[in-house]
Amino acid sequence: MPKGILGKKIGMTQIFNENREIVPVTVIEAGPCKVVQKKVPEVDGYSVVQLGFGEKRERLFNKPLKGHFENANVKPKKYLKEFKVDDIDSYQVGQEIDASIFNVGDSIDVIGISKGKGFSGGIKRHNFSRGPMTHGSKYHRRPGAAGPKGPARIFKGRKMPGHHGRSRVTVQNLEIVKVDSEKNMIAIKGSIPGAKNGLVILKESVKN
Known about the structure:
Blueprint: E1 4-16, E2 22-30, E3 33-39, H1 41-44, E4 48-53, H2 63-72, E5 79-84, E6 96-97, E7 107-113, E8 116-120, H3 122-126, E9 162-165, E10 168-180, E11 185-189, E12 199-204
Antiparallel strand pairs: 1-2, 1-12, 2-11, 3-4, 3-6, 4-5, 7-10, 7-12, 8-9, 10-11
């Protein structure tokens, strides 16, 4: 059964390992999630399980979504995500999946939405160098020439000031250093993308 779960980023801290070394970790509330739907190749063309996670006031759901959860006999969840699986028969609609599916030492991939930085200039967004600060240049942080003289236009893909951050980011091969099944908490070595209380997706790393 491939391992995958939805969670919420709690924040960062540090713990001591067996060698009394400080290890920086990110704490994630992993689940509990409910299996809301199973999709099979005969009907849908592929095998996935749909997991629901998080609480949300029921009156905020529209009728189609309410009916979707009622068919699964599951309380409406804030987030719905699909996970590809090989053995679809090992999952049952209404089944609860929690942090206990992972063990200390497991290697996982974490997917999250990075922090948004708003509209940013080229120096912050693309790590451009600034212009001279002396001799009255008055051209310190502006982007400079934007396109070649001949075509007289800007080519697609040119690095320019604009929206920065708030994009989907995947960090691979992170190590699990602690699992608390009772509280559904997982401590992962290192940092992960996103702000506190942001949604994260945890998946077992694919070994080549």
